[in-house]
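Reminder: ligand-aware prediction takes two inputs, not one.
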Amino acid sequence: MQEKLLNLQEAALNEIKDAQSIEQLESLRVKYLGKKGEITSILKEMGKLSAEERPVIGKVANEVREALESSINSKKEELKALEQQKQLASEVIDVTMPGKVFTVGKKHPITQIIDEVTEIFMGLGFSVAEGPEVETIENNFDALNAPKDHPSRDMSDTFYVNSELLLRTQTSPVQVRTMKNEELPIKVISPGRCFRYDSPDATHSPMFHQIEGLVVGKDVTMAQLKGTLDNFVQKLFGDATKTKFRPHNFPFTEPSAEVDVTCFKCGGDGCPMCKQEGWIEILGSGMVHPNVLRNCGIDPEIYSGFAFGMGVERLAMLKYEIDDIRLLFENDMRFLNQF
Ligand code: DAH
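Here is what comes back for the chain with 3,4-dihydroxyphenylalanine:
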């Protein structure tokens, strides 16, 4: 039996020496030292031995067990170190390799203008209102005093979705939503996308942006409209900028005016930018029509309001001297990166 144990030890030590992985080593441990392992099964036969032989064999068995255990442990350390080395070698970082270039995006010029205008009006105490791009015909036209036969409803420049909905042709319907839903006094601007059935050319795009403004309360006057817009254009185009109110017609304002500013390129002397006129048209405005107030449940005998609306693309094209509106929507980074 002693010989059996010593043969076993020799075989086991050889196998342990040749083990290639920690898993393999573990299965050797089970094979030799486990509960159902080979040493255990030899020891089970100890009952057959004589009383003199038993302690001798017991001692040998313990020595074999200890020898195997320590051999397994040191092999385990060896394999662990080897695996770590392998991992380090495979994860080597080449610090001389060029890094990845991350191109950081930037705000589109349209967004830049909207942000700039919004910030100016927030400084004047306005808050921002939003409305949906798919709007009711009621909010886009009827409530804004443009009844069924009104030219601004012309099929040719409006995208109708069905008999009640359309893609809004202007941000003015946000006026209606705000007046119907918010408490007075109201002082909001509303930037957003608008749509008209226009063929794209250098100055037209079927999708464009507007910024609407609305102030409603007691004793709101045209003088306040002029003061507000003067303040706005001076902040946007420079302190020396002057405004000119030209009479106009919009269905939802009375009186209505188009507003020109002194050309920010030549200061009003006349240059190619302003087509030698010294003035540049930038927005439409007026006093909210009593019919519109009434349509929104506001008594025009007690309250009054002013409104204005401007085209964002137009402002961007003026400010950045862009001569074709389509460039703004082609999203060519070579173009956009200039702003
Ligand atoms: N909605 C007008 C348009 O698209 C612009 C406009 C003019 C808005 C006068 C207004 C306003 O609020 O008072 O042409």
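The chain has twelve helices and nine strands. The domain at 109-336 is CATH 3.30.930.10 (BirA Bifunctional Protein; domain 2). We will return to this case in the review session.
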